[in-house]
């Protein structure tokens, strides 16, 4: 090896801001961790976080939850999905997405993706027609946004309710409008590897008062819904409050304490992610044989991870690339593996979902690689990563190891 092996960690996030740590200690000292455990006149940190996130997102209502997966599950249920219903979703996503559909007893109908890693809108129209599904759980997987204008026109025409999975698009925009504000509801995650880090956590946002009232009761508000930070007026609850089950998926004040200062830094962090992404993308694009998804001009992304394809590499070649890169300290994920690895899986690994033929998606995943870009990386780390990828790529192309 001529170049230096990369020694950074692809899973190392930044520390929680000191103000968040102090606020968390204060919550611990108070003993009032539960979001409804407030002193007289006190607005809980969870309620404050809801108000702040709703404002930042530009949504009327926001509900803080225990996870992004719970946000999707509750959004589906609150928008009327029930057992046996069909729900459309991208075939390329992560396990919590089909999992949320399965959790409400519904059946995922998987839609092909395009080479730019977004939902294939022609296949969406076809599958909506053949399945009769009335809901789409749109996954903005790895931060790529489809043509949201065209998608919403299609949804209007065929009467599809859209729930957006924005786990990777918190802060992204399409034509200036924030991801999450197009469909009936937006679902966000504050799990460690997303754009804000509370270990676990999530948000559901919407402008629909009834959907939010249901979601709040489902989240486990008991009859304390007036203590929320970005909730509809009490009248919105009067019809539904006794007919809606409690599914206990609340956020607590400890997590809210560490998220509030991160929200203040989110815009600045988005710029930092994009500086890393743009540097990495330029370096990868310059490598022959490597293809990056096209990012449309309407999309403002948050480059917290980067994807590339190596057409014609083959399964053996792909495995070699992953292992050569690992030897050089670069953690690449390959979506074409037959067995799920870590967080990476393909639709074939979700055996609770009825098997579906997705030849186009399979062909794309067969040569698709993915890499995280945590904010603990610097621009010179990007250079070092690129050198190591180039060397790994070279080594993987050799039919046999020379040494
Ligand atoms: C992380 C993630 C979610 C939500 O995850 P939780 O871990 O439940 O917060 C949803 N969709 C995608 C694509 C994700 O990566």
Question: What's the short version?
Answer:
With 403 residues, the protein is of the alpha/beta class. 39% of the residues lie in helices and 13% in strands.
Tally the helices: what do you get?
12
Which strand-content bin applies to the residues? Answer: 5-15%
E-strand count: 13
Shape: globular
Task: Specify the biggest β-sheet.
Answer: 7 strands, mixed
The quaternary state of the protein chains shown equals single chain
* Rg, Cα atoms, Å: 22 Å
Structural class: alpha/beta
Mean pLDDT: 95
Elements, N to C (H/E): HHEHEHEHEHEEEEEHHHEEHEHEH
Uncertain stretches of 5 or more adjacent residues? none
Structure ligands: pyridoxal-5'-phosphate
Any chance you could write out the topology, listing elements then pairs?
Elements: H1 18-30, H2 45-57, E1 61-65, H3 68-78, E2 86-90, H4 96-103, E3 107-111, H5 121-131, E4 135-139, H6 148-158, E5 161-165, E6 173-174, E7 177-178, E8 185-189, E9 202-206, H7 209-220, H8 235-238, H9 253-285, E10 299-300, E11 305-309, H10 314-327, E12 333-334, H11 359-365, E13 368-372, H12 379-397
Parallel strand pairs: 2-3, 2-4, 4-5, 5-8
Antiparallel strand pairs: 1-9, 6-7, 6-10, 8-9, 11-13, 12-13
Helix pairs in contact: 1-9, 2-9, 3-4, 3-7, 5-6, 9-12, 10-12
This protein binds pyridoxal-5'-phosphate (PLP).
Pyridoxal-5'-phosphate is lined by residues 67-69, 93-94, 96-97, 139, 141, 165, 167-168, 189, 191, 202.
């Amino acid at each position: 090896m001529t170049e230096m092996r990369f020694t950074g960690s692809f899973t190392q996030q930044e520390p929680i801001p000191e103000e968040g740590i102090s606020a968390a200690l204060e919550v611990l000292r108070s003993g009032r961790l539960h979001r409804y455990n407030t002193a007289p006149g006190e607005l809980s940190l969870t309620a404050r976080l809801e108000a702040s996130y709703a404002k930042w997102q530009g949504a009327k209502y926001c509900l803080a939850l225990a996870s992004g997966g719970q946000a999707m599950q509750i959004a589906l249920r609150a928008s009327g999905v029930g057992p046996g219903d069909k729900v459309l979703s991208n075939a390329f996503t992560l396990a919590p997405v089909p999992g949320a559909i399965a959790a409400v007893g519904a059946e995922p109908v998987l839609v092909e993706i395009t080479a730019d890693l977004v939902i294939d809108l022609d296949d969406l129209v076809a599958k909506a027609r053949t399945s009769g599904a009335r809901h789409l759980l749109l996954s903005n997987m790895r931060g790529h946004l489809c043509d949201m204008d065209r998608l919403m026109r299609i949804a209007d025409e065929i009467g599809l309710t859209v729930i957006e999975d924005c786990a990777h698009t918190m802060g992204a925009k399409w034509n200036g409008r924030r991801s999450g504000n197009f469909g009936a509801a937006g679902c966000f995650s504050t799990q460690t590897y997303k754009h804000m880090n509370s270990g676990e956590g999530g948000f559901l946002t919407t402008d629909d008062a009834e959907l939010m009232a249901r979601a709040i009761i489902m989240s486990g508000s008991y009859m304390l819904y007036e203590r929320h930070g970005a909730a509809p007026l009490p009248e919105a609850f009067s019809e539904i409050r006794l007919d809606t089950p409690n599914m206990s998926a609340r956020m607590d004040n400890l997590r809210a304490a560490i998220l509030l200062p991160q929200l203040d830094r989110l815009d600045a962090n988005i710029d930092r992610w994009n500086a890393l992404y743009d540097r990495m993308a330029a370096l990868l694009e310059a490598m022959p044989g490597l293809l990056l998804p096209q990012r449309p001009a309407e999309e403002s992304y948050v480059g917290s991870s980067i994807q590339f394809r190596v057409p014609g590499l083959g399964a053996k070649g792909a495995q070699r690339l992953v292992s050569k890169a690992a030897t050089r300290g670069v953690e690449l994920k390959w979506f074409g593996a037959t067995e799920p690895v870590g967080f990476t899986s393909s639709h074939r690994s979700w055996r609770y979902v009825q098997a579906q033929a997705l030849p186009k998606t399979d062909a794309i995943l067969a040569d698709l690689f993915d890499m995280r870009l945590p904010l603990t990386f610097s621009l010179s780390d990007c250079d070092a990563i690129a050198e190591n990828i180039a060397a790994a790529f070279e080594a993987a192309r050799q039919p046999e190891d020379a040494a």
